[in-house]
Amino acid sequence: MLKNKINLYICLFYFLIISAVYSQIVFFGKTLVPNLYYPKGFSPVAYEGRRPINTFNIDLATPTFYEMPVNKLIGDMYLKGTLPLWDPYEGVGVPLAAQYSTRVFFPYQILEDISPYWLWDYFILGRLLIAAFFTYLFLRLLGISYSCAFLGGLLYSLSGSFVWFVNLEQFVNVAMMIPVCLFSLERILQFKKRRYFIEAAVVFALMLLAGQPEIAIYVMLLVTFYYFFRILIEKPNILSFLKETLRFVGILILSLSFSLFLILPFLEFIPNAYHCHPLGGTMGTQEPTRLHLAIGVIIPSFFELPTFHRIFPHNGAWDSLGGYTGVLMIYLILSAFFYKYRYQRLFLFFSLFGFSIILKNFGFPLIAWLGKLPLLDQSWSPRWAGPVWTFSLACASALGLQAIIGAKYRKKVLPWGISFFLLFIIGLLSYKTTYFSQFKDLNTDQLKVVLPPILGGLIVAILTIFTLTYISIYSRNKKSLLYSIICLAILELSFYIPKGIDFPWTVYKFVPFFLGAGTVFLLANEKWNLSIAGIILVVLSYVFIDIESPYGFPDRYNLFKKSDYIKFLEEDKDFFRIIAGGGILMPNFPSAFRLFDIRYITSLSPATYQNYVDQHLLKSPHEWITDRLWFTGLPDIHKSIPRSIYDEIRDNLLYYSYLGVKYIISNNYQLLGLPLVYDKEVKIYKNTHYIPRLYIAHKIEYSSTYQEAQSLMAKTIFDIKDTVILEEGPPEWYKFSTEEYANKKYINSLASIEEYSLNRIKIQASLKENGILVLTDLFYPGWKAHSGNKEAKIYRVNGLVRGIFLKKGKHSITFKYSPFSFRMGVVISGLSLLLTLALVLFLRPRCV
User: With a threshold of 0.85, does the pTM exceed it?
Assistant: First the structure.
């Protein structure tokens, strides 16, 4: 009972700390939802409130345009009782769950997605609370003190893997699950109960459902190394080792079986997709981080610099680091290397594992080979391995602190730690002297933006080192030392939280830091009443700066408030598609408004549609392989002469028309020859040449591949509604007479969409003669068609879309998306769960 009560208090303390450092979000109606952090014009809403200065130079583009709109779509699907398997609003349709990083089956994400938008910020911060608390529980299970375990949770939850990527949910979902995985694994190692075995399998499965598979690969690497390290230090005999190995393999198999309903569709999508991760490729070793960027691991504000174009995912030095630790965490680890104590082997494990991953990210030869191993060759570790090494170093720091507070010779050993640390900083700064030379040509206004975070980071790092050294040597007792270090950790890490405030308010951030440093000294000297007053002053000063700064966290705002032009488009009940340029209604926002948009932002793009885009829509596609997954309507900034999307539309109008593009949205570009049907906050042009999503054709030509079929479309360009290109022959009963068609015998064949839902489409057709019903939605495995009560084979038409052959007469056709991969995954996962429950309920509890 006492233990549970203490844990409850610990959880409450984490909540209070997170609420304090993010007080603007928790109490004052500000937001971390990333869409309002972008330059004006890239949000679909007319927001006029406070905005941050552009210092959030990490991958905000992905959560802004990829994640948040899709979250809204997924939430609406769940609320309507529909499984989020297919998204018809992107491109010409795309698998939704099979994207994996959409997180559609992760329970925490589901709760967020079905919640109103104003609660999303609390779910964002809730991940920090869960990560902190389970890191604490894991460290307590290892046997260290409450205070040291509390510090470990604090260091991880406020590290760069959360602070930098706080709203990149595919990232932080998995990061949040790392301590949960280690906690469940440690319970097996210590207690060897069957229920803990099953608990670990469920937790691992949740981690696999959480979001980013590249992070999950490194999480599995960590838990595997940790499990066998813990076994080997017990010096087991061969039989015991084999038994423990089988237990671990069983956990992995069971966790995979629980998550197969997501993994199997994902594996099915990969060979049908365009992506950046070829098997046996170089993703695990390519583009190692440049060494001079390592300073950002301990002083992240060195890279809190403006980036003026943040549309694509490759932007900002932080994106090449994956996180940061700050000074205090590294200093504690370096100092603790000099001690011998009970937890030294665990300390060495986490330290070496964390530093090894960092060295691998920087391309050090002795460890870079990890990126060539199976699965690891699929993960770009400079970003995606960030949570693994920040968690490892947070645990090492907590274990190291346990050694330091119990040491008799702190006064002799700590100066060695500080010496090594200062040499490390000096070495990094001197490694690339050109880092500072890049600022020599900046004017005064630019220097006001650049210098405060750089100089401020250096001052904070140096003061943190000397403050920690002083209180470690001169604290009156262990209790005051622990409280002082915890407060110092909060003080340092909260300074690095980017809030987007401008000069001179960035300079004012030193006020709470200096107040906090004074409070730390008071705590070290057991001046409890003055310390409490100091803590209150620190919090109030931070809040005051946040409130008074003209720039900073933006106001919470409904991102999905419909503009007038959205309402105008909704009035047209036809099943048309749209395209926009210039940052208006960026993808995937049309999905949130149930508008069909031929653009997309995905992690995996259907290969057939990607080829169609490159061949027919964007004749000069993006040069970078990752950018080709971002069909945004914006020009490729890497080209010497960026080409406007409206130039592409003008030159390739027929291919846009074939996909049913009826409306073209512009800000100020004039599309000559097309009628302007809306002219208010945006201009909307109507494409009078667009082809309906549904039509009936009769002529057939053949190709051997979908690429060839798409190329042959140019041959039938003037007969595109009447001729289909197939990669296989028609049914035996289908006959076609060119002479009869020339006499327009079939001209009155009609078809219409009666119902269009996310995974199901109902169509009515009336044919005067045999023909091919073509629906210009993506041909993809898992779609089934029925005409009446009979299944109809779906053909890939023109190398891209769906078609079925129909005999003359009236037909009621249903297209339904129910992939075998998902159904098989559900069956296997369900059976695994039932068998697991049977083991729990009907077998007597015993040790295994």
Answer: yes
